[in-house]
Amino acid sequence: MIGSSEDIQEDLDLLNQKRGEIQRILGRRLRMKYCPTLTFLLDKGLKHSMKIHDLLQQVSKNTSS
């Protein structure tokens, strides 16, 4: 998800509010007797990886200078 922290939280809240409806649709389309309970969480891994990448590039620039 991209946006401000408030926008991201609003999106997560909306997804969790619609969780039951999404589960029913998935259950019908996948033809499952029981659909697992869905939980929507924010994955901060990509943001963390990008920060590490930027830091490594800064170190690389400083060492090659």
Structure description:
- The chain is mostly helical and 65 residues long.
- It has one domain (5-64).
- It is built from three helices and no strands.
- The radius of gyration is 19 Å and the shape is elongated.
- The two termini are 36 Å apart.
- The mean pLDDT is 88.
Low-confidence stretches: none
Strand content: under 5%
Total number of strands: 0
| Number of helical elements | 3
What is the radius of gyration?
A: 19 Å
The best one-word shape is elongated
Question: Could you name the key traits of this structure?
Answer:
single chain; mainly alpha; 65 residues
Summary?
With 65 residues, the chain is an all-alpha fold.
Structural topology:
Layout: H1 5-17, H2 19-30, H3 45-64
